[in-house]
Specification:
The chain is an alpha+beta fold and 94 residues long. The protein contains five helices and three strands, in the order αβαβααβα. A three-stranded mixed beta sheet has the order 1-2-3. It is globular, with a radius of gyration of 14 Å.
């Protein structure tokens, strides 16, 4: 399983129910980046919409994502950008 698929699977399992989940591998755009070469991990951008984020601030939402990806952060992920929204936020209701 490639890194993008593994990240997608972990987030979908841990933050279910997910209304929407998109994991974009941006590693190719950072191919010469020294930090990425040293760690061997890739650069990823995640948009996740989950009811689990309801009532949580931005930092608490990010902590949930980092906790879900703790193992992957050790070797598969060098940089992670994320947007964490509730279904209402994603639908533009808030």
């Amino acid at each position: 399983m490639d890194a993008r698929s593994r990240i997608h699977e972990r987030l979908a399992e841990t933050l279910a129910p997910c209304v929407f989940l998109d994991v974009i591998d941006q590693s190719a755009a950072h191919a010469g980046h020294a930090g990425a070469r040293e760690s061997g991990g890739g650069h990823f951008n995640v948009l996740i919409v989950s009811t689990r984020f309801e009532g949580l601030g931005a930092l608490a939402r990010q902590r949930l994502v980092y906790a879900a990806l703790a193992d992957e952060m050790r070797d598969l992920i060098h940089a992670l950008s994320m947007t964490c929204q509730t279904p209402a936020e994603y639908d533009g209701e808030s």
